[in-house]
Amino acid sequence: MSKIGFTTTVPVEIILAAGKIPVDLNNIFIGHDNPQSLVDVAEEVGYPRNTCGWIKGLYAVSIQDDLEAIVAVMQGDCSNTQALMETLQLKNIKLVPFAFPFDRNKNLLKIQMQTLIDFFNVDLSYVERIREELIPVRKLLHKLDEMTWKDNKVSGFENHYYLVSSSDFNGDVKKYNEDLNDFLETAKNRDPFKEKIRLAFMGVPPIITDLYQVLESLGARVVFNEVQRQFSMPFTASDIYDQYIQYTYPYGAFARLEDILPELEKRKIDGVIHYTQTFCFRQIEDIIYRENIKVPFITIEGDKPGKMDGRTRMRLEAFINMLK
Prior knowledge:
By secondary structure, this protein is of the alpha/beta class. It is about 50% helix and about 15% strand. It has a 4-stranded parallel beta sheet with strand order 2-1-3-4, with helices on both faces. Strand 1, helix 1 and strand 2 form a beta-alpha-beta unit. Keywords: Iron, Iron-sulfur, Metal-binding. One of its GO terms (molecular function) is hydro-lyase activity.
């Protein structure tokens, strides 16, 4: 089977219905043995230093991996995606543009999804069948999330890893399902975590590779990974369109707050970490979150892939000590 890359979560059911292997380029980038080397590849061809590290990583992965095509999310994710796609056109990589409508208009989303359905030459009824086949593994992910905040038997990183990987199921749904099932069987027999501070992590997945481990060494644990949880589609949907309308991440700060605020209360969150990526437009949205979230709040910023820098560690240590 050939592989289809994508730049952020898309209706993966359509790719699977076409018999293709879905590949979230972000997961390949950050899971690389040396992700900084991928950033260097992009900078060597001329990507500016003051461009998001994720975009540079995605560029390098795209030109190095053997992909049949890339689904590029032009609206609802990164403002730099258009330029990324244009530079990939120079490499003769086949691109399929996709856009989540800003106003969350279901009819406009249907048009966009039909474009994907036509490109992959699949039938909508078969896409729906694939969606229904994925419901059991999505339910396992919801169980994982509940075991994180309610049973306290899953670490923040473990929660992050499985939820962020649900964008493409690591390219193999059957194996992903088996691995997740085995993990949950092991986790349920653990003693519960007993950290003093319960944190929420908001924002795009971190480029800092040891964030969760540092937080747990300071006596805190992330029990709500906001965007990663959305990748798992944590709700019941009537059809494929309803599923991707309920999905909050691509529809802006206010759509995300509709999910964030009740989860903060339900999970008894002591403090919120808002992660922003250097040079990302989403840093501006920090204003909206600070105005609407009435829980102690800290904003941190990541630039290049790698371990946490000393300044960020000191700020987080002071924040957690304040919460204790």
